[in-house]
Write a structure and sequence with these properties.
This protein is mainly α and 233 residues long. It is built from eleven helices and no strands. The chain has helices at residues 2-35, 40-49, 53-64, 69-79, 82-94, 99-108, 111-124, 131-155, 168-177, 184-199, 207-232.
């Protein structure tokens, strides 16, 4: 029981720095959801059930534009495809867990939960209670997201635009990415993607972000391929 509790609180502590950036993001979502025409109950339930910030923001915009329900569902599916990569990455460490644990952890899996969890597994490997670390990180983020959403809903339009709370999200992702940059291919991928994102910022339909993502993937893959023969030799 002591090891379980220890692993759980290690996950919570690892998540705390990221919560500082997520909290204002949740407040923004709560305010925007009301502005898009969602009820207070529906806005909060989205955070409880969908539990995916980017998908929720997209949904509020589509609801505001009166998009068909099927379009909203397909858009959410596309936006959340990255979670398949997270799942595939964590699968070797969680494959022996009971189905109920896999269901709980898959529900709690987010960008902010995945980042400290995969770093922990890469550092320590599989241990009997290591999944409690993932649970602690995920539950900490879930609780934070519910509270911040509720506060955003409560404040509504009272949140002034001058606060510029949206800056917190990029800082959160920077904090997640930095510990993972351990070799040249990773660093090159991050730098190249960042440069392209800045240069292509003015492209319509946020195409700059897609172009930046593909650039980072290509650069990282090419450099990783060049390093592989050296490691083999």
């Amino acid at each position: 029981m002591g090891e379980t509790r220890k692993a759980f609180w290690e996950g919570v502590r690892a998540e705390i720095p990221l919560l500082l950036g997520v909290f204002p993001f949740g407040m923004i979502y709560g305010a925007l959801a009301l502005g898009a025409g969602l009820s207070r109950a529906a806005s909060q339930m989205m955070s409880s059930i969908v539990f995916a910030g980017s998908a929720q923001f997209v949904t509020t915009q589509l609801v505001h534009d009166a998009a068909p329900g099927l379009v909203i569902i397909l858009t959410i599916a596309v936006v959340n495809l990255r979670h398949m990569l997270y799942s595939a990455s964590l699968a070797p460490y969680l494959k022996d867990l009971p189905l109920k644990w896999k269901a709980i952890l898959s529900y709690l899996l987010t960008d902010e939960c995945y980042a400290p969890s995969i770093l922990k597994y890469e550092e320590t490997g599989i241990k009997p209670f290591s999944h409690w670390f993932v649970f602690g990180a995920g539950l900490a983020l879930w609780s934070n997201w519910q509270i911040s959403t509720a506060l955003g809903i409560f404040l509504g339009t009272a949140i002034p635009d001058s606060w510029q709370l949206d800056f917190a999200l990029p800082l959160t992702f920077i904090a997640m990415v930095m510990p993972a940059l351990k070799n040249r291919p990773m660093i090159a991928a991050a730098v190249s993607a960042g440069v392209v994102a800045l240069l292509a910022y003015g492209l319509p339909f946020k195409l700059g972000l897609i172009l930046a993502a593909f650039t980072g993937i290509i650069v990282g893959t090419v450099l990783e391929g060049r390093n592989s023969p050296r490691r083999t030799s």
